[in-house]
Amino acid sequence: MTANPETFAEHIFGRLRHQNHPALVWYSADGERIELSGRVVDNWVAKSANFLVEQFDAAPGETVGVQAPLHWKSLAFAFAVLQSGAKLAGPDRTNLDVLFTDRPELADELNHHGETLVVTLPSLAFQYPGDLAAHLTDYSAEVRAFADYFAPQPVPADAIAIDALSGQLTYAAFMDAVTARMTALQHDAAASPEVPLVALMRAETLGSTPDYRTALVDAAAVWVLGGTVVLVGDGKEVTDRIRSDERIVIEL
Q1: What is the phi/psi pair of residue 46, to 5°?
Q2: pTM of the model
Q3: Which of 36, 84, 97, 165 could serve as a FRET partner for 20 with CA atoms 20 to 30 Å apart?
Q4: pLDDT digits (tens, 9 = 90+) for 69-113
Q5: SS3 assignment, position 5
Q6: How far apart are CA 19 and CA 29, in angstroms?
Q7: Residue of 3, 86, 17, 132 whose CA lies nearest to 140
Q8: Is the pLDDT of residue 16 over 90?
Q9: Is the dihedral of CA 130, 133, 134, 137 positive or negative?
Q10: Pick from 51, 87, 57: which is nearest to 212 by CA?
Q11: Contact, 36 vs 26, CB < 8 A?
């Protein structure tokens, strides 16, 4: 598997575009249940990648930090960083070119001098509910204007894809990690070729400001195998009813 965003995008999202069953199901602590098809996930990633490239010149060598709870919007944005060829930085990294956060005040707290995108996490929020300072960009309000197809440019296989708390991964190493995770999922005792792969991902296990490495590898592996990720937000109890309704077979 060669390591460039074009191969990455097509290997993962090319399959999602034609997937009839849900690719991602989101549960929030305040009662949201949002079901996203593969095409919808692909569209959000593409729009976000186009936003990054066209507005902020995201490319190999640029560093983008995602400092927001694990949510379907932040997961899609993290994948968009990798599609753009830029480097996804962990929450402890500084000197960011672009910061993506749900907390507008964070840019000042970090003394961040690059661009800041502010995301409003509720699924039906189309803009930030209030005034933003001039140096902040309302991601939720602006991302929809961008194209829902992204044409990536190749990047070196040894370029850093993720610089996380859990270590660095080049693009080649990220693709290898996804392949290894796919193998592990296929050999999981709970998995079966006759049963659709529906995998539970809990935001609480990754903390309030995750480094996204684990989430990206796990989600990509599930999607390439044709499965569904059930992402449960922090503070939401995973009940027997949820497990039964969603037909969860594996917990990531």
Answers
A1: -65, -45
A2: 0.94
A3: 84
A4: 999 999 999 999 999 999 999 888 888 999 999 999 999 998 888
A5: helix
A6: 27
A7: 132
A8: no
A9: negative
A10: 87
A11: yes
